[in-house]
Write a structure and sequence with these properties.
343 residues, alpha/beta, Rossmann fold, 2 domains, seven-stranded mixed beta sheet, six-stranded parallel beta sheet
Length: 343
Amino acid sequence: MRAGLVTGKERFELREVGEPTPGSGEALVEISLCGICGSDVHAYAEGWPYAPGICGHEWVGTIVAVDADVEVVGMGDRVTGAVAPGCGDCPECRAGHAEYCSTARSFYSGPDAPTSGGFAPYMAVSANRLVRVPDGLADVDAAVIEPASVALHAVRRSRLRTGDVACVVGCGPIGLLTAQCARLAGAGLVIAVEPDAERRALALETGADVAVAPGAETREAVNDATGGLRADIAFDCAGIPQTIQQSVDMVRFGGSVCIVGVTGSDAVIRPNRWLFKEISVDTSLAFTLDEMRAAAGFVADGRISVAPLVGGTITLDELPQTIDDLATRRNTAIKLLVDPTAG
């Protein structure tokens, strides 16, 4: 079968790989759709050492074969996937940090991970990584459960409190979903900060109270909303170095920033401002199985709106050029899905 893989800086290839078969404790999933994540694009543009199993990790599919000893899922189940629960035996688990289990991460992105991600027709995956998709939820919406889970985890990791004024910096898919999750978690006011006018409009459509351009417009909106106090919290979802310090500057003394967007580039910060304001900084990556189950429920019942984010579906043949177009901003779609079985 063919699989799409990032193979180096500005190199994305469609390679012939062996069709997987489920091993012990595994299920074989036929991929229906897979979203293109910002991290796929960053890996391509910046040349990250990118594990094949996470190149295309926003997938939904159907189980077409399963190891006889697997009980948590079965034939015909529609599923999506996350990092497995803690193994209980690794140093992280023994220390009480099962959410950082090294064994589970190995099955996700390490040497024991699948040899390709969702940019391929099939994936053999550990069954304890799988989450059932709610009945009645279309595949096109289910393909956005994974990024919705990232946003939910970020809000849960953050110091957001009921009634807080929250700035969400960057209105790509993660930013738009984080704004919705912040609202679900009780934010009193959500201010979306985004240079692109169309994305600001989409932020308002999906639940932000205010959407402004960065710079003077942001300062004015935040000061108006808070009487000059500034925001309680900022979620930096932009994935570019410049916004880290900008996010710190948006929040009040004693406020907090949660860094959600990913970049491999160096960032210039002003530590004296962080210290003077006694800023708290959290970071967030990925999510737990329970959070994915919760996010799936929120998408299914409409509390997280995903349909406005999806800009269309492409084929595997179109994927290499599309990845390059996204990296160079020739394509500015919020979320594109790949059908790896389409001709």
